[in-house]
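Usage example:
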Amino acid sequence: MSWTDERVELLKKLWNQGLSASQIASELAGGITRNAVIGKVHRLGLSGRAKSPAPQQARPRKPATRAPSHPMTHTAPAPSPVARGNLAVMPKATPIVAPLVELAPAPVAEVVIPMSERVTIMELRDTMCRWPHGDPTSEDFRFCGAKSPPGAPYCPFHAQIAYQPSLDRRRSAAKFAAS
DNA sequence: CCCTGATTCGC
DNA sequence: GCGAATCAGG
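Running the assembly step on the lines above writes:
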């Protein structure tokens, strides 16, 4: 593949939309790497770009730095409800063992992972679901790619299908709704 | 470890 | 011009 006018246009568009180089590389199928994208971006002279609409990550707020109170004017903080033994406002205890089956979302009859969410074997990470989609001999063959539990081959959704094929989902869902 | 863009430099 | 390798950082 090469940088046809069409592909360059798409590159410009996506770059200005704030997509990352690797994301753009995925869109521009054809063995384009993020390095290629970045290199092209620089050659086109559009390295700086508008603020990305989707900030990479929302930074956790800095723990508000409290103004130090003067020792002489310091007033004791109000005792917390817990310290006063007010059981009525104490946080409820969280069950140690969560009812996993009931908490799991009711599965839809058919699993449809959008193509855009799926990953190629090259994009597959250790933490991703390996559930296959499509013909392994086809260019379009993808894996689910959803986040799977540590060490697990499938995400919770596919694992349920893989390991509990005969689960009566409707009854399970009704039970959940009733609780 | 996951990811990001920036830069270099052989091709 | 191209992009892999590398760097520097979150």
